[in-house]
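User: Last request for today: this protein with glutamic acid, please.
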Amino acid sequence: MAIIAAEKELLVYENMGVRFDRAASKLGLDKGFQHVLRTPTKEITIYIPVVMDNGAIEVFVGYRVQHSLVRGPGKGGIRYSPDVTLDEIRALASWMTWKCAVVNIPFGGAKGGVICDPEKLSRRELEAITRRYTAELLADLGPERDVPAPDLGTDEQVMAWVMDTYSMHVRQATTAVVTGKPIELGGSRGRREATGRGCLIACDRALRKLGRKRTQQRVVIQGFGNVGSVTAKLMHEAGYKIVGVSDVHGGLYNPKGIDVPKLLEHVQQAQQVPGLAGCDAVGADEVLYLECDILVPAAVENVITSRNADRIKAKIIVEAANGPTTALADEILEEKKIFVVPDILANAGGVTVSYFEWVQDRMGYFWTEAMVNERLEQMMVASFDDVCSYAERHDVSLRIAAYMLAIDRVAFALKLRGLYA
Ligand code: GLU
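Assistant: Here's the final one, the structure of the complex with glutamic acid:
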């Protein structure tokens, strides 16, 4: 029997649930606790009226889901995208719970989103959406309650507006209410690069495990936003050969290796990946099937599915995005013996440095970039090794091992705290 019905394959929360159920049963977790841990704690829907630049009033829909607050305040980004759904935010919130537990930082999991297209909004409209969204969530956010961060479609400026709105209401500058802020407002050095740097560390660890060398690895990166572009830059500097990249507009391929500094300059100017001289143009999706050793999906959910997983030629997949692979695709990749470093481990560098930012804000003492990077590396390496030993001990994939490690940690904390009724 298929682990998930074909028509449900693209429902992200179902995909989270399938992995959760497998890991929790493997752990022998009591059914009642399984039910509690699988279910979110709170889901908030917000209607955001905004006077648009043309004078018309529009109402945007936003969400914040707090999946678990067992190990600490909620933690997780805010996403601005026309594709946001409650199902997606619910899945992303629970992935934050597992991600924070995998890297063993004292947070629960949460996620927010607003259905809007930031590319079509003016700066003033974006600010209005952000401030109203934050004001509506005043009772639920806070350094000890729930701490947002950037995600798809949001950036340091959006975080600065969240911080300011919250601070104005509580009548004191509260930098620790949000992470991924500008450095001048209590942001951490190294935060912007942290997810990409974490992916590089995950790649390095995978190579070490498989006895491969950086300089012999051909890498394809699908998605060229903050995470994809930083991952490309850092991997290139570390000696990997980047042979393919893509964004929503299209892809590039050069089997001899793309000149990444030139690519970054080109993207800065053209605001898109296609068009770099010296590379072949390929379709945005076609990059997934290029001849390569490492594939880094760094965009959105559901790019590797049961429909295309068999076409992937990479030997290693490092999931920089959240949820790029469906549960049905997991089985195909396992059969093909592809080494998959799962999202809740591979992209945990971002939230790890968010944790450092929160710590620095609360103590009012800021670290050097070298300190941030060194501690990030220590935590990523320790987590990678923890997940690998779980996988070996229980004879499961790294994905199921990561879920097992995370669920075990959250369940342990929940049992110690007990259920309050
Ligand atoms: N949005 C990022 C993620 O999915 C970062 C979350 C955070 O730093 O809180 O991991």
